[in-house]
Specification:
Elements (H helix, E strand, L loop, with lengths): L1 H16 L9 H15 L12 H8 L5 E4 L5 E4 L5 H16 L2 E3 L5 E3 L29 H4 L2
Antiparallel strand pairs: 1-2, 3-4
Helix pairs in contact: 3-4
């Protein structure tokens, strides 16, 4: 019984500290962890914060009738209402261009160029769910591994 209570307590604590979808630390846990790291940084330990915000680029190209949300750990889905493949390709290219001009400056004059991998599929008239369409995942795109 004690073992079961301990497992439940551990699972509850884990659930309270992690993002349910990604398994990554949630904001509260990340801030708690950062406090310890900031303390170490004051004692000659380096600490760098890297902010990643792809949703701003998406908001710049999205229309009122579209929706955008996180689908997986690193994957986001844009639902482009009333949009055929030609218009969707145009929007995808606009997003790719907006991300391509971004770079992250690093110490020593180095920079990391930002890229995005996109997959696209259209819902067929006979489909009653987006599940088949979601099989077109960015990880399946050849550019994902090359950064192209």
């Amino acid at each position: 019984m004690v073992g079961l209570v301990s497992k439940i307590k551990t699972a509850s604590l884990m659930a309270a500290r992690t993002d349910q979808l990604t398994g990554l630390l949630n904001r509260r846990a990340l801030l708690e962890w950062s406090e310890a790291q900031v303390s170490s940084a004051r004692h000659a330990q380096a600490l760098t914060v890297l902010m990643i915000d792809i949703d701003d680029a998406m908001r710049q190209i999205m229309r009122l009738r579209d929706q955008f949300g996180r689908f997986g750990g690193e994957e986001f889905v844009a639902l482009l209402a009333q949009t055929d493949s030609v218009a969707a390709r145009f929007m995808a290219e606009k997003l790719r261009e907006r991300v391509a001009v971004l770079s992250l400056a690093l110490d020593g004059g180095f920079a990391i160029q930002c890229t995005v991998s996109l997959g696209m599929a259209n819902l067929r008239p006979d489909e009653t769910s987006i599940d088949p369409v979601l099989s077109c995942r960015p990880g399946d795109v050849p550019g994902k591994s090359t950064g192209a």
